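Re: your question from the hallway

Yes, I did run it. Sequences:
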Amino acid sequence: MTEPNLSRSAGGNAAAVRRLQRRYRAERRFRLYGIAAIASALLFLAVLLVTIVVHGASAFVETRLLLPISFDAATLDPDRAHDKATLSGADYRALVNQGLVTLFPELADDRALRRDLSRAVSQGADSELRRMVLDQPALIGTTREIWLPVSAPADQLFKGKVPHNSDSGLSDATIARLDALQSVGKLRLSFNRYLFTAGDSRQPELAGLLGAIVGSFYALIITIGLSFPLGVAAAVYLEEFADKNRFTDLIEVNINNLAAVPSIVFGLLALEIFLNVLGLPRSAPLVGGLALTLVSLPTIIISARVALKAVPPWIREAAQGLGASRQQMVLHHVLPLAMPGILTGTIIAMARAIGESAPLLMIGMVAFVVDIPATPLDPATALPVQIYLWAASPERAFVERTSAAIIVLLACLVVMNATAIYLRKKFERRW
Amino acid sequence: MQFLTLLCALLLLSSLVYRLGRGRALHLSVGPGGVLHSLPSYYGYYVLLWCGVPALIVVAGWLIGEPMILKALVVSSLQQGDGDMSAARLSLLMNEVRQMSANGDYRFASDAVTRAAAERYHSLHALSSVAMATVALTSASAGAWLGLRRVSLQLRARNVVEKAVSLLLVASSTIAIFTTIGIVLTLLFESLRFFHRIPLGDFLFGLKWSPQTAIRSDQVGSSGAFGAVPLFTGTLLISVIAMVVAVPIGLLSAIYMAEYAHPRFRSVAKPLLEILAGIPTVVYGFFAVMTVAPFLRDSAAAFGVTISVESALSTGIVMGVMIIPFVSSLSDDVITAVPGNLRHGSYALGATRSETIREVVLPAALPGIVGGVLLAVSRAIGETMIVVMAAGLSAHLTANPLESVTTVTVQIVTLLVGDQEFDSPKTLSAFALGLVLFCVTLALNIVALNIVRKYREKYD
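Structure:
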């Protein structure tokens, strides 16, 4: 806004000019406050997202060590029977230790040093070797160079997340040997397979999100399957059929209040009804889905009613004028026209439900679950709960895992919300 | 798996039945005087109702009744081994039996009787699922047959089907009522059990909260450890800090968006602000622990002040940021709802825009803004994950934002996570806290919604 000629509008009065200048300054200040408020909120958002990405990006890769492994028949299969039980019960750590000795011959006689360095190789290396041998027994007797995962402290050290000294949880001798390996290119970063293929683990480098993702998926499917039909049916009744009386008033008041009840209260309800009264299994995604249904139902009903209200009355009049019954009018004409709006609202409600964790804590979906749940009745965690669990873990390496889990969760939310926006843009109709 | 097969069979049967009913109606209409009362598809749905409803009743009844009957049968065989057993031991054994039968693995049975019971349970369970499938499919077929026989030209199929559909719609909309009743009953019932042991006055006005020590009932003064005042003050402190952050920032951004911002700026900034509301609260909790709390501690240490890592300040700030979009979008609605002629009148008297906003728009919008802020407060009080992760666990009665405090929701979570025992005052107190939380948020919402509605009526 260009400032008007103050002296002319103030009639040449000096005091009036000063007063006007003060008022215009106040005007500019006020406007600045507004900009500062928006800027500070957006700054906070930016800092939050950047910190999460900076912390979490490195968890999508893991450090692997190139070890010469000789699949020694005497260690793996002493009686040459290729028996599965013998092969899977063999001492694979011995192979790893042997490989380390090949790299550093001075370790052969020093047990303490060898054990120390061996601890820098993840326990996941043993199971990877076991799987290889079980898949191809022909490997026995051969020698291969294999990239094996290192343990969490070594991984953090290589990624530069911890100080390069004994604070990292490794001894100086081990750090020196790892440095030597790095300088000859025997340490490298590769895509972190465990993050997306494994369940939870006490070892940070082996902990994965698959269990939590599957748990969230089951819970979400159940939530959609229940809350969408129930919510749409309730909205259709209230918006299209209900008479205005005390009964429908009661329902409306209830829905509006439920939408504002803290989600943890729904958790208490689910704990009491589904677990204590109905005896459903604890920690199961089925119960989680039921609890999330209760949480998201009011939101879906409210948004579906808005979508139904947006359908113009002449659609209804035209349908009834052609002889449709009220139900035919609603089910054949109004509901299909309102469907894009209802779907958008449902997706947004689901995006909320997938990030919800308080009710899931109440029904015990916070257990330490290693196995991937096969059915919605198996114990499981969910993505946000996994974030909570990892955030509470003391190991330094879980920080980047937690951030990575948050990135995955946020990615899910972005996809869901983008779908909702796309639907709205594509099907939005102006009547 | 068997259950899924049964469901698939029922679905197949119903689609077949629908076709049969529709076909029969069409067939009738071809004959002499063939005018159907309803559209043919309604006859299909009519027969489908006859087929599906009995089957659903059978399956639902079976699923509810089966565990009880099976339990009664197995318990009798368990008790043969041990004359009279305590209820707790019995339920423990039943759990073991169910577990073993579900896995089909009896190697780890604690004794021969349990093992026999588990095997018996397993065989009974298998028998029962076969029986359920048979009965459900039979009743579905019988119903379909009866329904098909009733199809005639005069049958008012559409009226019957529409009646059923409207019943379904009414039933769905009553779920909201049942949920509320469920919440109230659950909280009241468990709270009454709690207040049976701890007097209501001690809970509401007691100054000391340490539920962990109260497990031993013989301890002197153990009942005094359930004074919830420190939790209420802690919740209040964190909520106040959150509102101190959220109200100015939210309100000022709403004013700027509504009164000053260029539409293009608004269309970018508003969705960006809304992102803050879409981020899961567990992410805020992690952010508070990882970034905000250490940052506050370090910057305070530079001034020689020590701040607890779990300080109310860091928790409150992060919670405030979460609430900003809530306050700003509600205030935005209210400010834009203020009629333009009030503004124009003020401009005409020579007021600047900021003067108009401060002297005319804000006073007019105040009731709505207060309502929005109250809704935000209720959200702050009920917020769980941020405080569970970032606030403390031990209850201090303090108003110092630099110290660690705990909140009602934190205590509910810590009391109930991992604890299976439902008789101790410790777990029951969580429900009493839940009742307080529910009542307070409900009251805030009702007051806020009333204010907002009154305000809307004034200008509409």
